[in-house]
Amino acid sequence: MAKDNKELFRQTLLFECAWEVCNKVGGIYTVIRSKVPAIVNKWNKDNYVLLGPYFDEKAASDFEPIEDLTDSIGFAVHKMRENGFDVRYGRWLITGKPRVVLFNPFSVFNRLGDIKYKLWADHYIQVHDEQLMDEVLAFGYSATEFFRTLINNTDLQNTSIIAHFHEWMAGMPIMDIRRENLPIKTVFTTHATMLGRYLAMNDHNFYNNLPFYNWENEAKHFNIFPTVQLERAAAHGSHVFTTVSDITAQECIHLLGREPDFILPNGLNIERFEALHEFQNMHFQYKAKINEFVRGHFFQSYSFDLDKTMYFVSSGRFEYQNKGFDLTLEALARLNYKMKRENIDATVIFFLITPQPYHSINAEVLRSRNLMEEIQRNTQEIERDLGKKLYEYITSNHGTFNIPDLKSMMSETLEMNLRRNVKAWQHNNLPYVVTHNLVNDGADPVLNFLRMSNLVNGAEDKVKVVYHPEFINSASPLFHMDYTQFIRGCHLGVFPSYYEPWGYTPLECMASGIPSITSDLAGFGSYIKAKSDEFENPEKMGIYVVNRNNVNYNDSAEQLANIMLRFVKLNRRERISLRNSVEENSVHFDWRNLTKHYFDAYEAVLER
Questions:
Q1: What CATH homologous superfamily does 3-191+225-268+593-607 map to?
Q2: What is the pLDDT of residues 55-66, one digit of tens each?
Q3: What is the pTM of this model?
């Protein structure tokens, strides 16, 4: 942000409008929420407001109402309420506590017929009845009415207005703002084109074919034509059009028909520690919790040295090809072979955390975990009992000091309880690959690959797999910690995506001080490669980039397997040093540095 424009920005009302404001659905929620403190820190806090949908169950814990409606925003809310809109005005209870205006889409469902008619009459977009689309249209209609009401009922002569819309679900107001020539400068950000996501899932040669798609035919083929029309209208109607990576910019050119004016890379709030040992201690603390799961899950069948065990993790929505799960599993099968061939004295446990439909947690997995905890309680009880008896024995035998036979001092009842629990816990079956009972186990591509490659947690396997088909949180009975804590306890994140407009998962690893693997087809990975002057040797920073752009599947799988093999061969001191480097370089991706791209876009839109 230029120094000359600081005062201008202070006189500018900035609205950020997104479907995921106070409404956690996916990655954009993380983008918006994590960016707020950095925006508030540089912007006039009183001139920054977020707009989003109101869903009672989602907003209940995040939203605090503001009763005073005397300011310009509050007055516009008041006028809308008078006209039958259910509008909530308050603060989002996150760092920075920004003001938010939330619109209940259901409060205007009785106007959907008129909304759809005007959409067709004014913009030639015809939509059909579908729940999400109806909610999006009602939300867009309410947000548009808010801007009209604000401009018509408040004195904003000396105030500029910027409205920044994220994704097609929030972009509908742009069309009427431009059509009615409202005095609002608009910015639109697409985080991933709707059509691009569908095409990438269905075309293994997506990037090579990208220049040759007919967007209209493809959108109709996937039955998303109205959605793509809304997205294209927002992209073409905005004064400034942006996206999150160079990779997605290519999609925008070919599928949306407009080249982005700015690239706005995503960041996180990076928590730095004054002493390096602090985040290392956190790694050991959470690794110990994962160790407990591993003991319960694997050691009932066979055991291995946990001091020589590394935890790899991949996560995200279930898109088998787009998220690179297929490539990861292929590389893990190769890694298993390579480690056996080289007789490497180490074990890799790979956790795949991705939501899939399931009936329940596998009863045997849960039973094993519970028995493990019961055995732990047994040993702690024996420890207390023996400690008391040993203390009494020593202090009661004056002049002699002989360590007694501790087994003879053990309570028979406690010993029998321990024996029973150990016998109930141990068995000769292979440890389960999947922790839950999937709805369609036989058709699951992850399980089918593991069966085909015989990567089924055999005792002789160097690589073992735990497939957890739901996101981890603190209420999880298997892990008893949230996702960020789990990531801190792992050694390496593996995210070699085929289609990933940005990719928060490797960035989340970096924020946790954990090395990660990305790909040059992920926005994050392409950003790292594009900034070669700044990131001369990413591997020394703990960022490994797999080549997937114009590289065949076999070569990418081999490269990924070799990256993981090199990591496995690192000794403990080298892994600690690498984590130090990750933590040290994470500052590059702090929002306090990356919001400069947003301010550049805002500066540009004020000049247009």
A1: Glycogen Phosphorylase B; (3.40.50.2000)
A2: 998 888 889 999
A3: 0.88
